[in-house]
Each structure stands twice: as C-alpha cells, then as structure tokens.
Design a protein that fits this description.
Elements: E1 4-7, H1 8-12, E2 24-27, E3 30-33, H2 38-41, H3 56-61, H4 77-92, E4 97-103
Parallel strand pairs: 1-4
Antiparallel strand pairs: 2-3, 3-4
Pfam families: Cyt-b5
GO cellular component, one term: membrane
GO molecular function: heme binding
Length: about 120
C-alpha cells in the first residue's frame, strides 16, 4: 500500500465528522487509520479531539485543550521518548495501521513555547 502525504488541512478532513471518510490521527508526523476505534476517536468519542490532527504534545502533557499540537519545544528528552512509545503503540496495534505522513508548516522559533498546562492529569514534572 502506497503511503499518503498529507498537509495539515488535508488531514483535518479525517476527523471523524464525515461518516464516509476514515478517521486518522497523527503521532509525531506519522498518520494512522484508527477507524476501527471510532467509538473512541469518532464524533462523541472520548478521544475525538485527537482525530484529524497531530496532537503529539497532548499525549504527553495530558492538556487536551491547548496542547493539541505537534510542537514539541520545551519537552524533556524523556517526554519526547514517550511520544515515540505512543507512535509504537499505533504502529504495533492489531487494528490500527499507518497510512502516511503529515507535512507540518515550520514552527516559528520566535513563537512562544506552549505554556505548561495546569491540572493536566498526565503531565510529568
């Protein structure tokens, strides 16, 4: 199967709101089909906020409102390694599979680093 290269805008179409399209999430640039888990990632599901985007940072910080971004600046090396562990989870899952990659717009190095998320359950100190 040939891998698809997505822009962020193209990936956003696969957010589970259109029942005729598969549901995709991205982890550190890799795009995975999670349609078989639509009860989790589809509209109304507990992880719907991950659908149609690369929200790698939120997997580690647990901040599901303001950290739905691929911006990893300010994370520790251990946290970045944890993101790779999540990518492995999706790569090795029995019913999710990789469909391609997402090309992100460059992050302006002068833009502010996402601030810490207070009260996030999964945040590491």
């Amino acid at each position: 199967r040939k891998e698809i290269i997505f822009t962020e805008e193209e990936l956003a179409k696969y957010d589970g709101t259109d029942p005729n399209l598969p549901i995709y999430i991205a982890m550190n640039g890799e795009v995975f089909d999670v349609t078989s888990g639509k009860q989790y990632y589809g509209k109304g599901g507990g992880y719907h906020f991950f659908a149609g985007k690369d929200a790698s940072r939120a997997y580690i910080t647990g901040c599901f409102q303001t950290h739905l971004t691929h911006d990893l600046r300010g994370l520790t090396p251990e946290q970045v390694k944890d993101i790779e562990n999540w990518a492995s989870f999706y790569r090795d899952h029995h019913s999710y599979y990789k469909v391609g990659t997402v090309v992100h717009a460059p992050i302006d190095p002068n833009s502010p680093i996402p601030p810490p998320c207070e009260g996030a359950s999964a945040q590491k100190s």
